[in-house]
Amino acid sequence: MARILVTGGAGFIGSNLVDALIAEGEQVIIIDNLSGGAKENLNPKAEFHQLDLRDLTAIKPLFEGVDFVFHLAAKPRIPLSVKDPIAAHENNLNATLNVLVASRDAKVKKVIYSSSSSIYGNQAELPVKETMPAQPLNPYGLQKYVGELYCKIFYDLYGLATVSLRYFNVFGPRAPREGAYATVIGIFLHQKANGQPLTIIDDGEQTRDFTYVKDVVRANILAAQSQVGKGEAFNIGAGCSYSVNQLAELIGGKTVRIPARSGEIKHSLADASLAKKFLGWQPEYNLESGLKELLKISHA
């Protein structure tokens, strides 16, 4: 049995990861300040601490004796980072630095860092590969990329094993459906359930690589088990691109168009061949199969 610490373990992806780890018989500690997560997402078999990662003194004792750290806590929405870049910086970078310092000092075996496809910005070619330059369009993407660089530096300087996973548009059970942290699938499902038209930004021809949360959870576990740990970064995406208009058609219902937002990329599509090669990971879901399972769970 490994002792594992999950930051953001009351959040969407984090809570799904915690459930999978506990199902495998691991001992799990959660740190979450509940700013984006919810108590109802918490697995009762996990040890929960409501703390803020920006407070290094408070969190540091919890890292003692920990084998692996999965760092998922963040302010994960682009519009929030554009509106308040200072708060986003504190939560996405200062907190990450504290996690790395605490992990180094506690001699943690490996840190698995949740990064984002936002680091790529708009690339001339698709699908995006890890060898392409980072050119983020917003503070969130920049902060996630600097977090990756910190992970690499902590391996180079201190020998702390780290790996970064660049998630593409994750969806699934427990994803927020309203409020500042909601993403397009959650928003559409909430609107449809409430008899409202689906709000399509701009022309709706922007494309996204929608990735089911179960695939993301599996990627995290494989990254912990793998031999990687020198600060490498891997794309975690389904490798299928859908426009927002296509997504709206799949969900069904009336639509309405709203103005474009600044700092958003136009197209997103992952080349995840490196994750297959080095982590033994490949997606098991596409948008249709993921939506089918999500709706089945939602109606259960």
TrEMBL record:
SUPFAM superfamilies: NAD(P)-binding Rossmann-fold domains (SSF51735). Residues 4-237 form the NAD-dependent epimerase/dehydratase domain. InterPro entries: Epimerase_deHydtase, Lipid_A_modif_metabolic_enz, NAD(P)-bd_dom_sf. It comes from the Bacteria. This is NAD-dependent epimerase/dehydratase domain-containing protein.
